[in-house]
Amino acid sequence: MLELIMNFAKKDERIRGVLMNGSRVNPTIRKDIFQDYDIVYLVTDVEPFKNEEHVISHFGEIMLMQKPEDKQLPPPIGDGRYTYLIQFTDGNRIDMHIIHISKVEDLIKDSLTKVLLDKDDFIPNIPSPNENSYLIQKPTEKQFLDVCDSFIWGLGSHIPKTIWRKELPLLKTLINIVLREPLMKLLEWKIGIKNNYNVSIGKGGKKLETLLEPVIWNEYLKTYADGNYDNIWESLHVFYQLFKETALFIAKTYQYDFPKDALEKAYHFLMHVKKLPQDAISIY
Questions:
Q1: Cβ pair 20, 39 in contact under 8 A
Q2: How many other C-beta atoms are found inside a 10 Å radius of the C-beta of residue 113?
Q3: Which superfamily does CATH assign the domain made up of 2-132 to?
Q4: In what order do the strands lie in the sheet with 93-100?
Q5: Is the CA virtual torsion 142, 77, 30, 5 positive or negative?
Q6: Are 38 and 24 in contact (CB under 8 A)?
Q7: Helix orientation angle between 181-194 and 141-153, rounded to the nearest 10 degrees
Q8: Which residues pair with 65 in a beta bridge?
Q9: In the chain, which residues fall in CATH 1.20.120.330?
């Protein structure tokens, strides 16, 4: 597959350089059979490469293909690139981005970038691929408080009314947005503290299991409830406990303020709503 990728570039004069990024150039990632080829073709003119027959005929039998820049939902990136996401019948996959050569300075800011081809020596020298762009960053106190505020507001405002109304699809969406995202950010910072900010939790937190203490990971697993409301209520209690413990750890480490009173008020209100009958005509 890499040979096909390179031959396509070498035969087309409009392609002046090739970059590869993502997991295949990450020295810390364990290699496996599902790794994509994340490829950037640096070209003098993007427009001709929108002709899919010109592009895809070079690469093999296609099972599935997406062209994100041609879609309305989700909206395209819209920065002038053109992208082919291709799943081949042999199991290989390419995420292929056709980007104008003028964008090269922005592209190489990603530390997980490797130069495969540079026909004109126009690509600046870059370090060997590393995770520097993705390492956990120490939070400022404002960032810490903002994340706490997001969780507390979600726990005490969004979640109570939605679970009482039994609006399950909305409830599950909100749990992931207003509770899981802030909790994951706190867990990320805790991992950063314990590892001198020299690690990454990976896309979507995929490395959490290997970076968290086993007891914390097992508790975190309990936040993934099914559609049973009793189980969801139990998961909300785990969310609260994990968030509180992790936030206190970070606050103590950096001597940051922690809105403990607001968290307790939010949780107590949630527990009050849990006891409300479905035919209640007032909250209190």
A1: yes
A2: 22
A3: Beta Polymerase, domain 2 (3.30.460.10)
A4: 62-66, 82-88, 93-100, 37-43, 15-21, 113-118
A5: negative
A6: yes
A7: 150
A8: 86
A9: 135-274
Model confidence pLDDT, tens digit, residues 204-221: 999 999 999 999 999 999
pLDDT, tens digit, 9 for 90 and up, residues 42-75: 999 999 999 998 899 889 899 999 999 999 999 9
Please, are residues 107 and 97 in contact by the beta-carbon 8 Å criterion?
Answer: no
* Number of helical (H) and strand (E) elements in the chain, helices listed first: 11, 6
Q: For residue 178, which of 208, 205, 148, 138 has the smallest C-alpha distance?
A: 148
The boundaries of every CATH 3.30.460.10 domain in the chain are 2-132
List, for residues 129-173, the tens digit of each pLDDT value.
999 999 999 999 999 999 999 999 999 999 999 999 999 999 999
* CA–CA gap between residue 162 and residue 169 (Å, rounded): 10
The fold of the 135-274 domain, in CATH, is Four Helix Bundle (Hemerythrin (Met), subunit A) (1.20.120)
Whether the link from the prior residue into 74 is cis, omega within 30° of 0, is yes
The answer to pTM > 0.85 is yes
Q: Which two tokens stand for residue 251?
A: 């606050």
Closest CA to 147 of 181, 118, 182, 176: 182
What are the C-alpha distances in Å from 242 to residues 62, 74, 186, 249? 45, 33, 10, 11
Contact 50, 82 (CB under 8 A): yes
- What the block records as the tokens of 87 is 């799943």
The answer to whether 52 touches 46, Cβ cutoff 8 Å, is no
- What is the average pLDDT across 8-28? 95
Q: How far apart are the first and last CA of the chain?
A: 65
